[in-house]
């Protein structure tokens, strides 16, 4: 058993504190040299565990994984906000107890090249059959350290969400991977996976990344559950492409991502029991003929950015785009609670009536029993420049007095969309649709 257990601080090759990439790569080569037989008494290649004790480990050499049954684990995800740190005045920062992420922490010092995979701390790929299987990442922190100038001349480099770095990049078809208990921060891409099958992303803290979770290419039968997630204003919190049978459940998705969930060509998948919070429209987007998906029992909240350092950033979308934007057929949007609480002065363009659910294109969609609460405060208040990020956001969340109704379009169905059903999701005047080719039942009014 000990032969298949490796501790990066006790290995004979390399210095893990200087470059843990060299150490882990040499361990993988050792595993491959010892596990050469495909079948010994119905076994032969059991894989191994690589352990990363708490500490700071620089990574200057990309880790390349091409074996199955490998688990890389630490003893703490170590997440703490880098965005708050970089936006805190130096005199206040001097009083902090600690200023960097901790736990079992990998500091990504790679210099990315033109290839999108070149900036990945962990690069997973194996061609041929069977697909690489059962690789696990658990309980350690991958820290991209800094963002870089985006060339716009407008943004603080630490707030660009650009640096070309990726935490975990899975390039080839794979089966039954697990990413659990991880802390992933300050990377342009947190987790990027192509051709995923039966993948589990569970109980991770993936935030302050340009993009958090991207399931690309195609895939099936995977789950994104119980995570704390929050991307930057120019990236995805959760993105899936050409996927079937994806479960997105019980996640708490923070604001500032371009979208909370963005599906492209996704079918027969489920988004349920999540809490989504956004400062921008386009919270949930189904594009590219997404069909037969269930969006149910989620809480959506859109309000205005309350933290002064981030007031100048948004995702560029206007409020007639829709909080939920649907393209596709036979989707069910049922029993969601949707809150929009924002002063009219922050809506774009001026004078627009915000759209909550925007059915852009499709047939057979079923939109029913969604509770929409749209409010605006009596008077606008200036952001407190001295407020911490935590106090500013909590204060905004808990402010419910002095609210009055905000006029919205609860559901807008475009003219090319027919044979859709909208029930109990808006009053007669809140729903815009051709009622001769779609079914509509309004919420009664007093």
Principal-axis shape equals: globular
How many structural units, i.e. domains? 2
Q: If helices are DSSP runs of H or I spanning 4 or more residues, what is the number of helices?
A: 4
CATH fold node name of the largest domain:
Pectate Lyase C-like
CATH class of the largest domain reads Mainly Beta
How much of the sequence is in beta strands? 35-45%
Rg from Cα: 23 Å
Distance between the termini: 71 Å
Average pLDDT, all residues:
93
- Helix/strand-derived category reads mainly beta
CATH superfamily of the largest domain: Single-stranded right-handed beta-helix, Pectin lyase-like
Percent range for helical residues?
Answer: under 10%
- Tell me how many strands there are: 41
Low-confidence stretches: none
Could you say what the CATH architecture of the largest domain is?
Answer: 3 Solenoid
What does the largest sheet look like?
Answer: 15 strands, parallel
């Amino acid at each position: 058993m000990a032969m298949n257990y490796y501790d990066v601080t006790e290995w004979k090759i390399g210095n893990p504190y200087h470059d843990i990439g060299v150490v882990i790569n040499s361990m993988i080569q050792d595993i491959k040299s010892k596990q050469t037989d495909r079948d010994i008494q119905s076994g032969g290649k059991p894989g191994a565990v690589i352990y990363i004790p708490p500490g700071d480990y620089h990574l200057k050499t990309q880790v390349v994984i091409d074996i199955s049954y490998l688990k890389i684990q630490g003893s703490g995800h170590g997440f703490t906000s880098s965005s708050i740190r970089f936006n805190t005045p130096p005199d206040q920062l001097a009083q902090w107890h600690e200023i960097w992420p901790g736990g079992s922490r990998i500091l990504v010092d790679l210099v990315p090249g033109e290839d999108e995979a070149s900036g990945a701390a962990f690069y997973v790929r194996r061609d041929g059959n069977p697909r690489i299987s059962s690789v696990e990442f658990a309980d350690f922190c991958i820290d991209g350290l800094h963002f870089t100038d985006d060339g716009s001349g407008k943004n603080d480099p630490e707030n660009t969400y650009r640096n070309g770095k990726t935490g975990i990049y899975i390039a080839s078809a794979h089966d039954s991977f697990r990413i659990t208990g991880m802390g992933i921060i300050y990377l342009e891409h947190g987790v990027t996976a192509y051709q995923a099958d039966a993948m589990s992303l569970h109980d991770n803290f993936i935030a302050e990344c340009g993009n958090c979770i991207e399931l690309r290419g195609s895939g099936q039968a995977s789950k994104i559950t119980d995570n704390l997630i929050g991307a930057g204003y120019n990236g995805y919190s959760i993105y899936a492409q050409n996927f079937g049978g994806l479960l997105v459940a019980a996640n708490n998705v923070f604001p500032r991502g371009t979208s909370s969930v963005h599906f492209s060509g996704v079918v027969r998948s489920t988004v349920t029991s999540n809490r989504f919070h956004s400062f921008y429209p386009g919270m949930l987007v189904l594009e590219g003929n997404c069909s037969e998906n269930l969006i149910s029992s989620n809480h959506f909240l859109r309000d205005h950015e309350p933290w002064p350092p981030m007031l100048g950033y948004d995702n560029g979308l206007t409020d007639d785009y829709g909080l939920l934007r649907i393209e596709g057929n036979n989707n069910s949007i049922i029993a969601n609670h949707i809150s929009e609480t924002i002063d009219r002065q922050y809506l774009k363009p001026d004078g627009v009536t915000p759209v909550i659910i925007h059915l852009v294109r499709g047939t057979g969609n079923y939109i029913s029993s969604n509770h929409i609460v749209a409010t605006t405060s009596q008077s606008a208040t200036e952001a407190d420049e001295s407020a911490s990020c935590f106090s500013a956001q909590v204060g905004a969340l808990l402010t419910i007095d002095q609210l009055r109704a905000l006029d919205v379009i609860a559901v807008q169905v475009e003219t090319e969309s027919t044979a859709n059903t909208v029930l109990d999701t808006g009053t007669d005047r809140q729903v815009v649709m051709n009622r001769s080719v779609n079914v509509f039942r309004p919420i009664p009014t007093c």
